[in-house]
Amino acid sequence: MKAVSYAATGDSDVLVLGEREEPHAGPGEVRVRIHVSAVNPTDWKSRRGSGPAELPRPQVPNQDGAGVVDEVGDGVTGLRVGDRVWVWDAAFQRPDGTAQELVVLPERQAVALPDAVSFDVGASLGIPALTAHRALTSYEHAPAELGEGSLDGRTVLVAGGAGAVGHAAIQLAVWAGATVIATVSSHEKAELARAAGAHHVVNYTDPDTAEAIGALAPRGVDVIVEVNVGANAELDAKVAARGATIASYADAPGVTEVVVPIRPSMQKNLRWQFVLTYTVTPEQKDAAVRAVSAAVAAGALPVGEEHGLPLTRFPLAETAAAHDAVEGGIVGKVLIDVA
Q: Could you say which residues form the signal peptide (predicted)?
């Protein structure tokens, strides 16, 4: 089978397309024929590493993807050959990501995808949607699992509403009943955030951002899904409601620390929550997978430019270019056609 892998960390030129022996599903595992693989920032960051270094064994990149189950191992009861699925965390602490024709995973990491839902949607879930779910459920009185109406009466601020996680956070929050404010840096990105479903959009490059958000949410924002807490901590503290949570899931290049405004945070009893989807508890991950699956079935997580997430496609042989596109900050979702 065809697969892209790298034997050492480094620039995208370490990615090599080659042939690998077909894997087979063991007990409790399924084999998925990948149709579409997706690239997230975590994929190129893992490939780059902290510097050039030889790996103990070749690594196939990319955590997310979608395809069809074509082999099941003993003990698998929830999936059958021919089932359409989306997969998550394929390459986390494993050598086998989704940039290959066949990937073997524990049954838990392959999730049924409705027939009416495209592989593009399935491949775009994973890291972005599961991260967004954790951010949206991290405040003190949050439901453990989002559902329709579970955020009724809440106001959510999504920083960077045109990004993949921001896009998923807007869609999930709207589906769950929240009023959603998104911040963006341009008119073009504002249109994407609106297409995703944001009720209000604010350009954060304007000098009166806090005032604009305050006018939209006079009592403050309940949950902030934050992409750049280092730059936005002061703003977040200003616009947050009492008892609000600022859920940070990313850092800016070169930024390793954040200055938290202590007195404003104390006065409002704010919670600063840091999120990494890989290391949430199994219960939190399972709740996120169930909620995302329910949202998908309800048609709440579409992708494409008309839904606020433009798609850029590459063939498997150009996986390096796909990684470069994400590292370069391309707007939208980068997908790799594998099948």
A: none
List CB contacts of 129: < 8 A, sequence separation 6 or more. Answer: 168, 172, 288, 292, 295, 301
Q: Enumerate the domain spans of the chain.
A: 2-124+309-337, 128-278
Neighbours of 306 (CB within 10 A): 10
How many CA atoms lie within 13 Å of 23's alpha carbon, on the beta-carbon side? Answer: 20
Q: Which CATH superfamily is domain 128-278 in?
A: NAD(P)-binding Rossmann-like Domain (3.40.50.720)
CB atoms within 10 A of CB 83: 18
Amino acid at 146: L
pLDDT band with cut points at 50, 70 and 90 for residue 9? very high
For 127-158, the pLDDT digits (tens) are 999 999 999 999 988 999 999 999 999 999 99
d(CA 276, CA 157): 19
Compute the distance between CA of residue 156 and CA of residue 100 in angstroms, rounded to an integer. 37
Is the pTM of the predicted complex or chain greater than 0.90?
A: yes
Query: Tokens 């949206």 correspond to what residue?
Result: 136
* Alpha carbon 123 to chain centroid, angstroms: 10
Give strand pairing partners of 60. Answer: 96
Residues 318-331: pLDDT tens digits?
A: 999 999 999 999 99
Amino acid at 182: A
Mean pLDDT of the chain: 96
Q: What are phi and psi of 241, to 5 degrees?
A: -80, 165
90 within 8 A of 63, measured Cβ to Cβ: yes
Helix (H), strand (E) counts: the chain: 10, 16
Domain 2-124+309-337 = CATH 2.130.10.10: no
Closest CA to 113 of 123, 102, 104, 99: 123
